[in-house]
Amino acid sequence: MVALEVDTGPRRVLAMAVPALGVLAAEPLYVLVDTAVVGHLGATPLAGLALGGVLFTLVSSQLTFLSYGTTARTARLHGAGRRADAVAEGVQATWLGLALGAVLLVIGELLAGPVARLLAGDGPIAAAAVSWLRIALLGAPFVLVTMAGNGWMRGVQDAVKPLRYVLAANVASAILCPVLVYVVGWGLPGSAVANVACQLVGAALFLRALRAEHVPLRPQPRTILAQLKLGRDLVVRSLAFQVTGVAATSVAARTSAEAAGAHQVVLQLWSFLAMVLDSLAIAAQALVGAALGAGSADQARSVARRITGYGLVLGTGLGVVFAALAGILPRAFTADPGVLAQIPLAWWIFVLLQPIAGVVFALDGVFLGAGDAAFLRTATILAAFLGYLPMIVLSLILRWGLVGIWTGLSLMMVIRLVTLLIRQRSGRWAVVGADLAKS
């Protein structure tokens, strides 16, 4: 096998980052369409969709290692010139996704009712959420297959096909959703059926891509266990983000309705920009993994420096843009005077964080591509529990409101920045080899 020469120039980075952004943006855009369709049914179905959707996303988002971990393992093999072995990683990730999806489906069906009633009370909103969730859970295995498909295709540096597949699935579902909800008359359950159809189409396209590679499709338990080991660290890392996010939203809600509304507006913009920056991180994963798989630690370190610079430039640019939009954009989300008065308390912190976020997310991608998941897990937990959570608690006790909450997020990001830069400078993450488990 001949190791590949990894192209890390700006054009190659953009060629991978732009389609990745399209994939990342497709799901939120579809959710907006789904919300608009269901919103015309009334407040209760909309609230049911919101609750059911949050529960489904909360669980499935913990399994994103099927994308990120698979990219790391696949990219190394691709960089070593072992494409068939790289795709074989995708096969095993797909089997793992199907198995975990089946488990998630069974557990979700058993717990959907009790959890919905716990969160919303025993009333019409919980009933609506359960009616949506029980159907939507049927798509869980397909969602995880799509995650695995994105992972192995990014690893072999094929960024365009995943975008086509995800767009095809979401466009089909966006057309089907209003038909089932209104024309057929299924109401809220019609939305869930459209979701499952979308997920089935996406999974089928990724499965077809695997078959086209002409690699063995049998499950290999040893490889699946190795993928689970890497996934364990990424799941713990995701949980740290979830805990801090839920705690911050809870404290904002306890502060005032206006603070909660302002927090939601700025948080959604933060999440959107994180997605923009994360597209650069996805490019970093594939390129760093390929460089290490090709046996070039120097090239991997060069990619890290270059991607970090791109992240800083992009984050700074986004900060400038949203600083200029401070007096305009919030009014597109709300006309409530109280909420508009609270938004600046978080807005300027959000703006100032963008350059830091650009570097942090870029380095996340570098270390994910290197398979340095254990370090990322530990660094994230330290940043969350030493920086963010203490400030959230103090904000609740001392009534600091949004200033305290967003200062806590700033501390978390600064701690992550420092730890990531130290790790980058050390170079200990740049371990060469095609097999991540042995690196």
TrEMBL record:
Q: How does it sit in the membrane?
A: Multi-pass membrane protein
Record keywords = Cell membrane, Membrane, Transmembrane, Transmembrane helix, Transport
Tell me where it resides.
Cell membrane
Into which family does the record put it? Answer: Belongs to the multi antimicrobial extrusion (MATE) (TC 2.A.66.1) family.
Listed name of the protein = MATE family efflux transporter
- Please give the start and end residues of each transmembrane region: 12-33, 45-69, 90-112, 132-153, 165-186, 272-295, 307-333, 345-367, 374-397, 403-422
Would the keyword Transport be found if you checked this record's keyword annotation? yes
Tell me where it mainly resides: membrane
